[in-house]
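call fold(seq) -> tokens
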Amino acid sequence: MARKTFAIAFLFLCPWVTPAMAIERIYCAASDSVIDMSLESGFSNKDQERIVHFRGMAGVKDKAAPAGFKRFQITSKMLKQYWIDERDLRFSIHAFAPEKEPLYRVSMAMITDRISSTAKRFTGRYDLKVVKLKMGSAVGGEQILSHEGDIFCDIKR
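ret:
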């Protein structure tokens, strides 16, 4: 009886230890008739929800896109929103061209999910918009391109 009591007490007193599945980097890519894009984001080891870097390259292939977006670098300052939890990964970026006196804005929202909290691949959609800005404004303007496409993101450890 003492052995049985000890075994039960041992199970309740000792925590079940499972290895943490820390996300260190996420790599995303999309390629279709309108865009080629790849980006990488790195997350803090201490706070998995805090991004330490966000970078990549993109090129809008559509003829309606201004020259400044035919090939451009994605930087951390372009990241406007992001969300990551057990199953969802979302990013929203905004880029302006030319940088000093913007005439155009590209915005892209990426919404992905994965089949389980342990799966290494997120799949989903991106929504790309290119807007010709009104003079003196970074928010209003005429939309000259809108496109939706597939995107995937992989967890790299």
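The domain at 24-156 is CATH 2.40.128 (Lipocalin).
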